[in-house]
UniProtKB/TrEMBL annotation:
Record's keyword terms, sorted: Disulfide bond, Glycoprotein, Signal
SUPFAM superfamilies referenced in this protein's UniProt entry, alphabetically: Metalloproteases ('zincins'), catalytic domain
Origin: domain of life: Bacteria
Name of one Pfam family that matches: Peptidase_M2
Protein name per its UniProtKB record: M2 family metallopeptidase
Species in which this protein is naturally found: Lacinutrix iliipiscaria
UniProt-listed Gene3D superfamilies: 1.10.1370.30
Amino acid sequence: MKNSLLILCFLFTLVACKKDNSKPNNDNIKAEVQTFLEDYTKTYKKLAYASALAEWDANTKIVAGDTTNAYNVQKTNEAYAKFSGSTDVIEKTKKFLENKDQLDLVQVRQLNTILYGAANNPQTVSELVKERIAAENAQNETLFGFDFKVDGKSKSTGDIDNVLRTSNNETERLKNWEASKEVGKSLKDGLDNLRHLRNKTVSALGYDDYFSYQVSDYGMTREDMLNDMNKMVSDVWPLYRELHTWARYELAKKYNAEVPEYIPAHWLPNRWGQDWSALVNVEGLDIDGALKDKDPEWIVKEGENFYKSIGFDALPASFYEKSSMYPLPEDATYKKNNHASAWHMDLENDLRCLMSVEPTAEYYETIHHELGHIYYYQAYTNPDVPPLLRGGANRGYHEAIGSLLGLAAMQKPFLASKGLVDANAEIDETQNLLKEALNYVIFLPFSAGVMTEFENALYAEDLPKDQFNKKWWALAKKYQGMVPPSNRGEEYCDAASKTHINNDAAQYYDYAVSYILLFQFHDHIAKNILKQDPHATNYYGSKAVGDFLKEVLKTGANNDWRELLKESVGSEMSAKPMLEYFAPLMTYLKEQNEGRTYTLPETL
């Protein structure tokens, strides 16, 4: 650049030369920014790791009355917040971004990441941030330490889920469903408080509300995201309407009851009605039966073996040493968070999973899903991706990859190759497709509709606390065609029984995005790499599939997620592959529903 300026000085006038020399030197600006980024990253990694370690302890060993974990989480999160949201960091980052045209794109991406993180912890409202951290910690302790009881006996959420999946006793189902919602009473005030604290925190850096802040991570406005979510629901609505009608009649038959206009929530095999797949058993695909005698560790190793078969490395020994993978013994003196999750503790090689693996089909799918996150972490932990950009291309990508591999692991050819089903077994493909639709299609009105609209109302529309439950059930009726088994007054807060409402707030549309993306990726892999029917694939052992996934994963957040999608599958985000996948099911459902009364509108 300096030589170019000298040449210009000789070619043009002295005035022109002086004008060019008056411009900021790009190399100097880049060097200054790079020094800032490196210094910031060093401290950030140290503080973020300390926070993650404290959060890990708080999620894996919950002791009633013990405040040690709460204290450690509070202190480490405060230190992290104080640094990441410091006035100095914010001012320097904003100043550097004023010259973003003179910086490398990777530098700009890191600066934007720093500023986004600072908005959640601005020093200008440090007392507010401190209060929010304490409130979030208290909310988690209440949520994960809650003692669920049925007929006076303590039950785990896994026990309750098993009843809802398998029991034909409506009285038993009702007791367990109601027990699962009791935690909401204890969380309602905390959720209201958190809503106000989160909104006030991010408003300090100019965000309208916490929902808008979270959506901005996609490079989108709140209105853009709501429009995209509404389109997703509209796209799948004709199929959802058929599934809802089919389920009403099948469930009424099962419980020897009149066909309801809307489905009573306790009739469904999931606490929130987000997954109905347990309503269908596919003969020849008795995966639970095939796994019942397996050790839980075998399930985990099978997941790892799959990833190794397509060309990924073995998991580090520390993964098994540090993870919390299995249910606690019955005589344990503490509790743990049983919600499956994957953790990138230090943005390097400390990788962990928190689960309670049991030898069931659900956990067989879950382990492939969660290890999808772990291998995503591993893929973008490389020299080409700075630690600040070690995340998914967008938050939905992470879930999409996990769900993609979960789907692949449950298809018959894959299962047959692992000896979990008989390759020659006659399987009713329509019933199998129905079971899949009761998982993937059913989920979208819940995630893109109920959860997204509720959190938008909570944060952006300042939903009054005395209307939390009314709003939740109005949305469940509209989007899911589901109603509570009896009146649920405002003493309840059934929305807060959903973990994400409390500690992964205003981000549930990530999962809706992920389901659309997973079918786009799966469609591409099946048709263009494996040359197989998308309904019957076997990824196992395909290095070509592994190579494709590595290309998607290895850049982390060091890309434009829209461009990455186009480069990977050749199209923008679209529900078309998902609709094509389930198109054969529509004919069957219309035949089943002939003469039946539809209670959901044709369009929303």
